[in-house]
């Protein structure tokens, strides 16, 4: 079931509580619904009168009647793969009425993939952290956070209302510190569609560990320093030999 399908379940539950044995106004539920791709949604089809005729939910999708009373019917609609309009129609006092449920399909984050450019680096070395959230839509409302332990290293909030799924990628370049080797790196993805009648989806990557080593001396510098030392030794030796010969010749 979609993470946002719980709202439909809640609406249905409240509808049943209000409708059983009562002619009072019932809870009808939201008319704008966010449903995950391929998921199902519970729809509460409620009439505006207490004794409706021909209370039906019109849709080409497969549906199942879960429960019903005189004023309402509860349906489960399956395999919602694109934006849909579901029509709840009924007749009250000889007049046909229709209630429209607008369903918007979204692609929630199901995977969060974290990659470190190196598994072992020296202190002071530049490395890259990349986080990918495959096949999500819409990007609007998606935020991706890179973490070292519980510390936030980088956060990016995406924009865009495209309906087709696409990969969301965050890349962060940083320098290795000694303390990096004592913490796990991870990535969190959060899709917040509450402002659009949806809910909140949260996913976390598998942790990654970075081995941090002490910097190794530059081989070229070591070679240069060795040559300089040898030349100094030769120079000192030459000076001492010259002085020794001068002393010997003077005697």
UniProtKB/TrEMBL annotation:
Q: Which InterPro entries does the record associate with it?
A: ICAM_N, ICAM_VCAM, ICAM_VCAM_N, Ig-like_dom_sf, Ig-like_fold
Q: Look up and give the membrane topology term.
A: Single-pass type I membrane protein
Where, per UniProt, does this protein localize? Membrane
Main location, first listed in the record:
membrane
Using the record, list the residue span of the signal peptide; answer none if the entry has no such feature.
Answer: 1-24
Keywords of this entry:
Cell adhesion, Disulfide bond, Glycoprotein, Immunoglobulin domain, Membrane, Repeat, Signal, Transmembrane, Transmembrane helix
Q: Which organism does this sequence originate in?
A: Bos indicus (Zebu)
Q: Taxonomically, what lineage is the organism?
A: Eukaryota, Metazoa, Chordata, Craniata, Vertebrata
TM ranges are: 221-242
Query: What is the official name of this protein in its record?
Result: Intercellular adhesion molecule 2-like isoform X3
Q: Which family does it belong to?
A: Belongs to the immunoglobulin superfamily. ICAM family.
Question: By its UniProt entry, which PANTHER family does this protein fall under?
Answer: INTERCELLULAR ADHESION MOLECULE, INTERCELLULAR ADHESION MOLECULE 2
Q: Outline the extent of the Intercellular adhesion molecule N-terminal domain.
A: 30-111
